[in-house]
Hints:
Elements: H1 10-21, H2 26-33, H3 37-46, E1 49-54, E2 60-63, H4 66-80, H5 82-85, H6 87-98, H7 103-112, H8 122-130, H9 132-136, H10 173-176, E3 182-189, E4 198-204, E5 210-215, H11 220-231, E6 241-244, E7 259-262, H12 272-281, H13 296-307, H14 319-331
Helix pairs in contact: 1-4, 2-3, 7-8
Amino acid sequence: MGTQYSHIDLAERRRIQKMRDAKVPVAVIAAELGRHRSTIHREIRRNFYHDPFRDRWGQEYRGYYCTTADAYARKRRARRAKLALRPELRDHVIAKLRAGWSPQQIAGRLRREPLPCGTVSHETIYRFIYGPDGRGLDLYALLAVARRRQRAGRKPRSGPIPAAHWIANRPAEVVTRQSFGHWEGDLVIFARQFGKANVTSLQERHSRFHILLSNDGRRSVRVIGRIAEVLAPLPPEARRTITFDRGTEFFAYKSLAMASYFCDPHSPWQKGGVENANGRLRRFLPLATAEADRTVGALNALAERLNNTPRRCLGYLTPAEVFAASLAALTVPTGPAAQAGSPTVTPVGPQA
């Protein structure tokens, strides 16, 4: 037998059918063809014609037929090679993977906005990534690595957090994510050699809209001050509550013009939206991220990239689209003021 695998062709299938009709055992067929017997068993099982049709003379057409088996095999290979057969669709998928989109996000967005060359499922994209073509392009390296995390965080820190600001007393409507204007905040920390520099990560729960702020330290007054500064242009209805963990960097929360709540000790998962977002951020901001890659411009570009990536939880709309629509719904005038025209919605985010 050969050491290199090759697909069974039509000539071999003709010999298989001829020997099966002659009641030759599978082991003998395999030896005649130089194949392993499991290969022959699999070939017969996968390409067996199962439709028990009888013609007018009572003849039943059910069994292994070489031409039918070859047609079955070609159809399966064509289905697996959809992206190989459609270069425009393949190039679109590769471009979106390089932009940080997941296969599910690519497939979902294509269902909303199909290309002229068609759509593709996320399973087909995964097969392409791990197939010969995708491995040759190292596309698997572009996928986010999802890891399950223990529901435990840093040790609780003592601080002036009265019971009124515990997460148990947060309005119930925040949990459903159906109402707009509820935020979550966290810090993204870097390797020790970079000192105390960090990035504040903010996410609006309903739209998943993300804001990134660079900090040169972890002093609470500075961290909270930056949050207040960037959220101040929003109308009050768009900044109703914010949820933090119990890190001391958030203890100056009283200076925020919005209700602040804190997770239970050891429970950062209670602000799971921003925690999951930070996991995606680590693809672009690993622990060893240099200061040059954490400038205001770089963080603005990264936030824009995340906010323009479609999300399955949003029906494959982007966070930017949902955020803009929610903000516009708040700022549309009613009554006599409506005749004066709608006000312009100013994008939120840090400025260079």
